[in-house]
């Protein structure tokens, strides 16, 4: 109880600050002090008629308004505000530019002037703020005010949003986890050469070689870049997920900015990919491809992915790995090569006979309630209200924007939707990403009904979804503090970008690999692995290697 | 005091500038205290615990610290040797151009790169030097020389870095020198002509000595920037294989400090940078005055 006194004092001060700031900004609602007069907010009588609880919610502005409409005057925003008022909530949307997510959030956290709900995809930011005491704990509030949230996104709540066992975030749930890096290959090239899709890393090598030597695209032997690949660096699309799974590396470690499976958990010990024999052999394989011209000679300097994109869209490449689905890539490539067809390449058979690929985590966007929020209960009440009205932010207003057919939300008038809702309404959805699981083949046809070739698209996309369903694996989400990692992971990552690039283009691979391993150790790689091992043992992690 | 009273209106004109520096330069210096703290953004500057010299110790213990400092110094020293004289030479040359229109056009063309972002310039550099598609290697192939992968070779990368800096800044840098040149008394040139001096003689005996004070002052300022380095150019030109020479203090702070929110450590690095820069300026100034020239103060 002592604590709550202290808190309410703090919160009251924050409230004064928020109100005065709101007044400065001339915020729309005439500054009516309608909201929480008691910061504890746990009193049940807070929703008396006429007395609205104020809640301020972040909303991303992607500066994509089609006709200069103000984001805060849009149809769905108005509708949500109107519906929320019926539940006793006075909702204000605080608009921030999408590209300034991290800056804005940092400033808000530091100055205590932010909205009641802050949104981010950055799990580490949440951990950091939680550790420093900048976020409200949400366990009790969720139990008390969030029954609809729980029933809507239970699976996401089960795996994410906690730190040291306490809840600090409401994670949005990805309805379809078929979204992550996937391998694609040019079916028309395979057909032309009479080849079958490769099923192992060795076969992939043979296929790439055939692409290079026989030039099925007719672009000139010297111009073929069989595997389109950009630089290995942060934000680049130098992905090694699929092929490296195929080499025997698994994803038992936490996700980092290295775009490859993180490492294996064997006999109670975790080893990062570069510390594994499988990892070494994979980069020896890449080194061979480089020497034989099966990847771009210039990939290390393609630091903005330009050549990479050019390679696959101009039809000189036959194999690639990226986050886009094969139809998106096919459509792009067909602009210059009309008969190109990219299809999903199922995961390669690994040395131990299994097949696996990395799949998106079931959680996505995180909603946080900063300590500066005077009334965290109202934030949870808002999210619960959103859970009850979730179709509003999944498809728009039923009967106006969409109608439901076979579990699909079909737009009634796509042109009207493009203008009225499409450009922003998904950003209002803080609880689910998408509205349905993976579509069936029939559903894909309906989804693409307005394209000229829905049958072909279904043929291309169906295997894509099914491969995630059959082989998708998720890495662990460690929610305990990892001080060693905090200190060293950025240095290790930075070092590996350089070192692995050099290993791929090295004349003498074995000598260069020595540098990779010694440098990795010098930057604290072994200590990092030891710490991950501890966490994995504590959470009873089962390896993804089998 | 009397002087103050008599010219109070003139001092009044100074007030806006003084306020500007107090608010935007001196008050923020208080933030340097973060370098000695275990900074927690929710507790603020004052309530965060003291960390003594931990941040500085941590700075020295970073495995890359020696490398990034060496790279910063190396790139800056090369910049001083190559980029500093470039605008002087260019200004002297432009000054000798007699056709007005030619002078105007060449000046504008020389200024142009200054107005482009390094991201764009970086893209141009990469495109021009690409081994497969770039113009330079095309020419090399014609000449029968084996192609060179410039941007992936450490030595070449340093050369490209330095020369691209000249390309970007030299034209713009001529403005100050050209201004100084126009201020030279024409009588000096006439006198030199009467004494029988040719154009080259005049450049060395009249023009250069006349703009020497400007050169010295700019040189002192340039020396003062030796330890700091802008972030755009290294970031735009760097790639993973040349990390050994391209990783500098600013990119390191950005990649490791800012992205991880290590404010204490970052402030410590920034503070050390400023202190070294200040020492360098004072030293350079001292020598400039000792050598008989004018210093900054």
The helix-strand sequence of chain B is HHEHEHHHHHHHHHHHHH
Oligomerization = heterodimer
Query: Which CATH class of the largest domain in chain A is shown?
Result: Alpha Beta
Q: State the name of the first-level CATH class of chain B.
A: Mainly Alpha
How many angstroms separate the termini of chain B?
A: 23 Å
Low-confidence stretches of chain B: none
CATH architectural category of the largest domain in chain A: 3-Layer(aba) Sandwich
Number of strands of chain B: 2
Structural class of chain B: mainly alpha
Taking Cα atoms only, what radius of gyration of chain A do you get, to the nearest Å? 26 Å
- Main sheet record of chain A: 4 strands, mixed
What are the main properties of this structure?
heterodimer; A: alpha+beta; D-Maltodextrin-Binding Protein, domain 2; 2 domains; 20 helices; disordered N terminus; B: mainly alpha; MetI-like fold; two-stranded antiparallel sheet
Please give a structural write-up.
The complex is a heterodimer of chains A (546) and B (297). Chain A is of the alpha+beta class. Chain A has 20 helices and 17 strands. Helix content of chain A is 43%, strand content 13%. In chain A, helix 5 (139-145) packs antiparallel against helix 6 (147-159), helix 10 (277-291) packs parallel to helix 18 (483-505) and helix 18 (483-505) crosses helix 20 (525-538). Chain A is globular and about 75 Å long. Chain A starts with a helix and ends in an 8-residue tail after the last helix. Chain B is an all-alpha fold and 297 residues long. Chain B has helices at 2-6, 8-26, 44-47, 54-61, 65-83, 85-96, 100-111, 118-129, 135-142, 154-182, 186-194, 199-223, 232-237, 243-246, 249-260, 263-290; strands at residues 37-38, 49-50. Helices cover 71% and strands 1% of the residues of chain B. Chain B has a single domain, classed as MetI-like fold (Orthogonal Bundle), CATH 1.10.3720.10. Chain B is built from 16 helices and 2 strands. Chain B is flat and about 75 Å long. At the A-B interface, helix 3 and helix 18 of A face helix 15 of B.
């Amino acid at each position: 109880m002592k604590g709550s006194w202290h808190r309410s004092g703090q919160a009251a001060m924050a409230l004064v600050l928020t109100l005065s700031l709101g007044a400065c900004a001339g915020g729309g609602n005439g500054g009516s002090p309608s909201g929480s007069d008691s910061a504890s907010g746990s009193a049940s009588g807070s929703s008396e008629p006429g007395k609205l609880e104020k809640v301020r919610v972040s909303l991303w502005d992607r500066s994509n308004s089609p006709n200069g409409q103000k984001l805060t005057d849009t149809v769905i925003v108005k509708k949500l505000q109107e519906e929320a008022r019926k539940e006793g909530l006075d909702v204000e949307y605080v608009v921030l530019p999408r590209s300034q997510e991290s800056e804005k959030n940092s400033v808000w956290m530091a100055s205590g002037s932010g909205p009641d709900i802050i949104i981010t995809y950055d799990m580490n930011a949440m951990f950091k703020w939680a550790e420093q005491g900048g976020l409200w704990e949400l366990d009790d509030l969720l139990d008390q005010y969030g029954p609809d949230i729980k029933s809507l996104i239970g699976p996401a709540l089960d795996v994410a949003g906690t730190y040291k066992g306490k809840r600090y975030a409401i994670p949005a749930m990805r309805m379809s986890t078929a979204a992550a890096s996937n391998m694609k290959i040019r079916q028309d090239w395979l057909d032309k050469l009479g080849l079958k899709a490769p099923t192992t890393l060795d076969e992939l090598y043979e296929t790439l070689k055939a692409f290079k030597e026989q030039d099925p695209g007719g672009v000139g032997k010297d111009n073929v870049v069989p595997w389109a690949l950009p630089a290995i660096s942060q934000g680049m699309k130098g992905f090694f997920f699929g092929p490296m799974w195929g080499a025997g590396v698994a994803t038992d470690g936490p996700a980092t900015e290295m775009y490859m499976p993180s490492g294996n958990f064997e006999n109670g010990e975790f080893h990062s990919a570069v510390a594994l024999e499988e990892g070494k052999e994979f980069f020896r394989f890449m080194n061979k491809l480089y020497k034989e011209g099966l990847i771009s000679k210039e990939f290390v300097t393609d630091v903005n992915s330009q050549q990479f994109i050019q390679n696959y869209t101009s039809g000189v490449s036959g194999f690639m790995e990226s986050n886009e689905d094969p139809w998106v890539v096919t459509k792009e490539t067909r602009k210059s090569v009309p008969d190109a067809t990219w299809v999903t390449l199922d995961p390669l058979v690994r040395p131990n006979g299994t097949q696996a690929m990395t799949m998106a985590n079931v959680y996505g966007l995180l909603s946080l309630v900063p300590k500066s929020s005077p009334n965290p209960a109202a934030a949870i009440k808002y999210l619960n209200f959103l859970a009850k009205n979730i179709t509003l932010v999944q498809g728009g207003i039923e009967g106006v924007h969409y109608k439901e057919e076979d579990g699909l939300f079909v737009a009634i008038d796509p042109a009207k939707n493009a203008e009225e809702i499409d450009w922003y309404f998904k950003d209002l959805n803080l609880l689910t990403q998408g509205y349905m699981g993976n579509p069936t083949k029939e559903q894909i046809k309906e989804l693409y009904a307005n394209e000229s070739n829905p049958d072909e698209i279904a043929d291309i996309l169906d295997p894509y979804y099914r491969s995630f369903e059959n082989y998708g694996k998720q890495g662990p989400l460690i929610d305990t503090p990892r001080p060693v990692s905090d200190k060293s992971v950025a240095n290790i990552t930075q070092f590996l970008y350089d070192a692995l690039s050099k290993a791929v283009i090295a004349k003498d691979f074995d000598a260069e690999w020595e540098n990779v391993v010694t440098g990795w150790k010098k930057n604290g790689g072994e200590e990092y692995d030891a710490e991950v091992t501890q966490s994995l043992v504590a959470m009873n992690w089962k390896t993804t290697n089998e | 005091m009397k002087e103050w009273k008599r010219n109070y209106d003139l001092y009044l004109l100074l007030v806006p500038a003084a306020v500007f520096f107090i608010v935007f330069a001196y008050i923020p210096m208080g933030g340097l205290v973060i370098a000695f703290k275990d900074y927690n953004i929710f507790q603020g500057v004052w309530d965060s615990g003291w960390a003594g010299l931990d941040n500085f110790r941590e700075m020295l213990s970073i495995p890359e610290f020696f490398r990034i400092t060496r790279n910063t110094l190396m790139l800056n020293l090369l910049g001083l040797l190559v980029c500093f004289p470039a605008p002087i030479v260019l200004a002297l040359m432009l000054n000798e151009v007699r056709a007005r229109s030619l002078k105007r056009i060449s000046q504008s063309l020389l200024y142009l790169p200054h107005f482009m972002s390094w991201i764009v310039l970086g893209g141009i550099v990469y495109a021009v030097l690409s081994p497969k598609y770039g113009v330079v290697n095309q020419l090399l192939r014609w000449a029968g020389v084996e192609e060179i992968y410039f941007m992936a070779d450490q030595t070449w990368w340093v050369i490209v870095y330095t020369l691209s800096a000249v390309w970007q800044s030299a034209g713009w840098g001529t403005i100050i020198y050209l201004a100084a040149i126009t201020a030279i008394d024409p009588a000096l040139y006439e006198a030199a002509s009467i004494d029988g001096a040719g154009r080259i003689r005049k450049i060395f005996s009249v023009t250069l000595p006349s703009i020497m004070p400007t050169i010295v002052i700019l040189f002192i300022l340039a020396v003062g920037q030796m330890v700091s380095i802008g972030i755009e150019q290294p970031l735009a030109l760097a790639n993973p294989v040349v990390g050994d020479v391209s990783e500098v203090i600013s990119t390191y702070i950005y990649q490791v400090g800012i992205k991880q929110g290590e404010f204490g450590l970052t402030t410590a690095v920034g503070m050390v940078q400023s202190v070294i820069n200040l020492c360098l300026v004072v030293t350079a100034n001292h020598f400039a005055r000792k050598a008989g020239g004018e210093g900054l103060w």
